[in-house]
Amino acid sequence: MTTDDRTQIHTLIQRWAEAVHAGDMDGVLADRADDIVMFDVPPPHEGVRGIGAYRDTWPPFFAWQAGGAVFEITELEVTAGEDVAFAHALLRCGTPRDLERDPANRLRLTIGLRKENGRWVVAHEHHSFALAGEGGADEEIRKVHQGWFGATEAKDLDGIMAHIADDVVSYEHNEPLEYVGADAVREVCAEGLQAATGIVQWDVPDLRILSREDLAVAWGLNRVRVEGAPDVWSRGTRVFQRIDGVWTMVHQHVSFPSDSRTGAARTDLPPARPDRPDSP
């Protein structure tokens, strides 16, 4: 390994990480081989193969990252031969709340490179988190929510509909009693985005997840922020099933509490528990 090779590869990887953090697709794809193979944190378990499939994995991540997540190399080592090299790295990857909850957690990255026409290109990437027991499923479902939060702020309807089953049944705030099927849920989401003239943000600060095998339930208080309006809180419960290796929402139930005297929905109630995150 020459110092020049090591410097080139180190710079290539740092430049890629900066492009990921910036949501710069051209920068992310630069220096990737046409036949790249990536083993990513989300499914498919067999990985993605080819530059087209690799490209398709990034928009949902960019949407999630738009909610304030970081993607930052903290440690990087490079080893190179004449025409083959590898690197391993640790990265801070998560929302501020994720990193506050588990500051030591790191994304592990291994990269394989080869030299083509005198230029180093990435032929393989492997991304993973260290997972303990059922925490793996919980982390995947938490990232599904993070993707939804980012897609909401970006007003990306396709991103919002990711991980929702075709036959989902959703109990929404408004009539009818139930929305059956992804098309019906897509319509109500589209109406909500169209009704908001400014920035819309949605999150669940106290999100809790319980998973067993291929079923999971997530619940917490939904906080919706619309530019120029007060925060609105509601209750939310979502049921997931792992289908073909992908966590998919099969049921949703959202509601507002009602005034016991008038029956009117109370959309102005903040969280009452002082220990709840972000409680006033």
Written account of the structure:
With 280 residues, the protein is α+β, with helices and mostly antiparallel strands. It has two domains: 3-129, Roll (Nuclear Transport Factor 2, Chain: A); 135-255, Roll (Nuclear Transport Factor 2, Chain: A), CATH 3.10.450.50. 30% of the residues lie in helices and 38% in strands. It is built from eight helices and 13 strands. Strands 7, 8, 9, 10, 11, 12 and 13 form a seven-stranded mixed beta sheet that branches. A six-stranded mixed beta sheet has the order 2-1-6-5-4-3. A hairpin with a 5-residue loop joins strand 11 (215-226) and strand 12 (232-243). Helix 4 (58-65) crosses helix 6 (135-154). The chain is elongated and about 80 Å long.
Describe this structure in a few short sentences.
The protein is α+β, with helices and mostly antiparallel strands and 280 residues long. The chain contains 8 helices and 13 strands.
When the domains are counted, the total is 2
**Biggest sheet details:** 7 strands, mixed
Query: What fold name goes in the CATH topology slot of the largest domain?
Result: Nuclear Transport Factor 2, Chain: A
Write down the overall mean pLDDT. Answer: 89
Write down the Rg: 21 Å
The residue fraction in helices comes out at: 25-40%
- Global geometry: elongated
Strand percentage? 35-45%
Instruction: Please state the second-level CATH architecture of the largest domain.
Output: Roll
Estimated structural class: alpha+beta
Distance between the first and last residues' Cα: 57 Å
User: CATH class of the largest domain, anyone?
Assistant: Alpha Beta
Count of individual helical segments: 8
Element string (H = helix, E = strand): HHEEHHEEHEEHHEEHEEEEE
Given as residue ranges, the uncertain stretches (5+ residues, pLDDT < 50) are: 274-280
- The tally of strands reads 13
